[in-house]
Amino acid sequence: METVLWVLSKIDLTAILDILLVAGLIYGVLLMVRGTQAVQLLRGVILLALVMALLGSILDLTAFKWILDRASQALLVVIVIVLQPELRRSLDRLGRGGRLSLWGAPKVEMGDVIRQIVLACSAMSKRRHGALIVIERNTFLAGQIETGVKMDAEVIDELLQTIFFPNTALHDGAVIVRRGRIVAAACVLPLAETITEEGHMGTRHRAAIGVTEQTDAISVVVSEETGIISMAQNGNIVRRMDERRLAAMLTEMLVPAETEQSNWRFWRRWRRDSE
């Protein structure tokens, strides 16, 4: 108890300001990497540094502690390199008068978005127009978005069909949907690293699987050769899906459980339009 009181007696306004600045800096870094692929890597680096520091202190390893002291600056450089894309995007937003998002994203009515995607995939499947639609979830797809043509449009059945119409400028590549809006088209995605059981899968299907191997996104793909609708998640792909099954699976993964009952109007409208 005396130790705690002694520590508290040493805290002044300067110390409080110092703590707040350090906390703000850490919070800002976490905010920039939130939902990105750099989170796992940064978490691993920090965990490794903490374990090594604890071992050096507990076991009183002089040489090991000396190496850690010398490696601390190099560790900061590594972290900056890892976070380079996030830092560049954040500074670019600030330079253009933007701001960092401190609050959660606004809620989006995903029922209508799912309905538009399913209607578009059904129409393109009948015409055998190839398509690849990626729905972003918690992991940001900023790197993939930068490879395509940026947009800001509602997810509409007719717009998706127009984008993927053969020989148009944006048909080759993926459409990325973020927070219920189309943010980019003609995006380049990483190809699947795993070997699928069906070796005849083309580049579009391998890209649909590849982006879900590295992120928690959901991919919906329409085959240009067969018109088969498929959906990929977590590196796995489900093929030969009909409209109802695709709508049900997208709703299960994208609509929060607490709002499922409030979407009964969507299902009534869906059954009416499908008859």
Distance between the termini: 74 Å
Q: How many domain units?
A: 2
The amount of beta strand, in percent, is: 5-15%
CATH architectural grouping of the largest domain: 3-Layer(aba) Sandwich
Given the C-alpha coordinates, what overall shape results?
elongated
Written description of the protein model:
It is built from 11 helices and 7 strands. The model is unreliable at 98-105 and 258-264 (pLDDT under 50). It has helices spanning 2-9, 13-33, 38-58, 62-82, 84-95, 110-127, 142-145, 157-163, 203-214, 243-254, 264-274, and strands at residues 131-135, 149-154, 174-178, 181-187, 218-222, 229-233, 236-238. It has 2 domains: 2-95, no CATH class; 110-255, YojJ-like (1, CATH 3.40.1700.10. It has 275 residues and is α+β, with helices and mostly antiparallel strands.
Output the keywords.
elongated, alpha+beta, single chain, 275 residues
Element layout with pairings:
Blueprint: H1 2-9, H2 13-33, H3 38-58, H4 62-82, H5 84-95, H6 110-127, E1 131-135, H7 142-145, E2 149-154, H8 157-163, E3 174-178, E4 181-187, H9 203-214, E5 218-222, E6 229-233, E7 236-238, H10 243-254, H11 264-274
Parallel strand pairs: 1-3
Antiparallel strand pairs: 1-5, 2-4, 3-4, 5-6, 6-7
How would you sum up this structure in a few lines?
With 275 residues, this protein is α+β, with helices and mostly antiparallel strands.
